[in-house]
Structures are given as C-alpha cells and as structure tokens.
Design goal:
With about 180 residues, the chain is mainly alpha-helical. It has helices at about 10-15, 20-25, 45-50, 75-140, 165-175, and strands spanning about 5, 35, 40-45. A hairpin with a 3-residue loop joins strand 2 and strand 3. Residues about 65-75 have low confidence and may be disordered.
C-alpha cells in the first residue's frame, strides 16, 4: 500500500515544522511528488517528506513553543519546562492525529476507487455474459418446427378433405377435360 498524501498543514504538523518550511522545501524541489488538489491545496506524499529528511511525528523543540508570560506572572523555571514538555507532547499528539486522519482519508479514497473499479468490472462482465448467451443461442439447433401439413391432414390450413362439393368439382372436370 502506498503512503498517504498530506496537506502542507498536515505535513508541517506531522513533521513538527512550520507550513512555510514545507512550502519552501516543496518550491525548492525537495518534495517532487507534491501535487495541487483543487479542494485541499498542495498535497505532499509522506514518502517525499521522509526522503527529504523530515521525521514524522517529531515534536517541535521546546524553544519553538509560544513564549510564555514575562515578568512577575512568569512561571518558575521548572514550571516553564513542564509547559514546554506538555506543548511538545500536544504537538506530537496533534501530528499523530493529523497523520492518522490523512491515512484514513487516503484509505477511504482508495476504497471508493476500488469500489468504482469493481462496479465497472461487474458491468463489463455482465455484458460479456450477455454476449456469450447470444452466441450460445446462435449456435444451438433451432427448435423443431411443426410440419406444414401433417400426414393425412389438409394441404391448406383450415381446409379439410372433401370440403369441395360435388357441384364445384364437376364444372372443373368439364372445363379441364373438355366435354363430359
């Protein structure tokens, strides 16, 4: 199975870097498999991120965390480190979630594409079966047809033997045989 494609935002979150870093690396050609999706923007393959040296699910370093309050309200030294660790953990969890979401979307699109492929295959096979059935019907012997005149029956349908009266048959005999 191929790896999923991430939006620039998802890629940045998954790698623990800013979106501008992903954009700059894409524009520099470090992410050659990136494609622009009309709905979601630039999509970056996870394989390209790994090939470019990014680590997935890497938390942002604490020094990149948002600065805390300064002055008398600033936390003690140990408390600031705890907040940085928590921010890093939150970033890691967000990145994992973004990657899981991207994989789920990719899996859904893959399943939808497979379903469509199977639908088309089913229609094609149905048409093939219909063609084969027509071919078998063409090669099969024709059903037996009833004889036009069963033995001892009338030569013309609806006419029984002896339907011709004596009066009708006499003039014909005379006209054919000459004089009677």
């Amino acid at each position: 199975m191929t790896r999923p494609m991430l939006t620039q935002r998802e890629a940045a979150a998954a790698c623990g870097v800013s979106r501008s870093t992903i954009r700059r690396r894409r524009e520099a050609g470090d992410l050659p498999g990136s494609v622009q999706d009309p709905e979601r923007g630039w999509m970056v393959p996870v394989d390209d991120l790994l090939a470019a040296g990014f680590r997935l699910n890497a938390p942002a370093p604490p020094d990149q965390a948002a600065p805390g309050p300064v002055g008398p309200a600033a936390p003690a030294h140990g408390e600031g480190q705890d907040a940085a660790v928590l921010r890093a953990e939150l970033a890691r969890l967000n990145a994992e979630h973004a990657l899981a979401l991207a994989e789920a979307r990719f899996g859904q699109k893959l399943a939808e594409a497979e379903a469509e492929h199977l639908r088309r295959e089913l229609v094609a096979r149905g048409e093939h079966i219909a063609d084969l059935q027509r071919a078998v019907a063409a090669l099969a012997p024709a059903p037996a047809r009833p004889a036009l005149a069963p033995p001892g029956g009338p030569a013309v349908p609806g006419q029984a033997q002896g339907d011709l009266g004596e009066a009708e048959s006499e003039p014909r005999k005379r006209s054919w045989g000459g004089q009677t």
